[in-house]
């Protein structure tokens, strides 16, 4: 897959506001890999950052980055992507207590947060999709509700069933999108959390999507195949009139009768 061409196709069909981000997970990390990544133009954070911040730097400012546990600020993000063991204050639920009525509820919520098994990942690299020189494991896309709807439709173009959103209102990118998609090898959806909005420029109108790289071509195929039925942006059909632009098989018998009488 030529990633620069894939980016062009994706952006032509969706007109994304920020760049899709290619993410690569490394099971091992040493000085040789660090030197290689730096030679490829990836930079290491100068100070500890959140996972969502590093993704934000790629999607807004075209910055290719790589990071290990030593570069992490938010402990939850570090745990979610498999870089850090779960600390006691997270296991106990204390870390999520501000968002739950009591600590037991917080603890039960933390148990449901997707996280890559500790030790499985030693480093993570991310870059704008069209600029990366690595073979990514997943692509992270931010979009508005219509763009995300189109990604879901495209993903399901050659599949049965539905895409399900599972959210606790927190850890939307690192857990619900990146870890979930890595673990399941399936498309994952996320609602940006408080920290992501405060530190990573997630917008009020944005959702995030994780697409495993082995499904990316089929998503592009699905977008192309369904673009006539649901183009983006979707044409406005009138809020206070019978939607007679719909195919006849979509209409009730009452709507068909009213349209026939009107015509």
- The helix/strand series, from N terminus to C terminus, equals HEHHEHHHEEHHEHEHH
Total helices: the number is 11
**Structural domain tally:** 1
The structural class is: alpha+beta
Total count of strands: 6
Which runs of at least 5 residues are low in confidence (pLDDT < 50)? none
Shape, principal axes of CA atoms: globular
**Helix proportion of residues, in percent?**
25-40%
Radius of gyration: 21 Å
Tell me what you see in this structure.
By secondary structure, the chain is of the alpha+beta class. The protein has one domain (3-232). Helices cover 38% and strands 11% of the residues. The protein contains 11 helices and 6 strands. It has a 6-stranded antiparallel β-sheet. Helix 1 runs parallel beside helix 10 and helix 7 (145-155) crosses helix 10. The protein starts with a helix and ends with a helix. The mean pLDDT is 95.
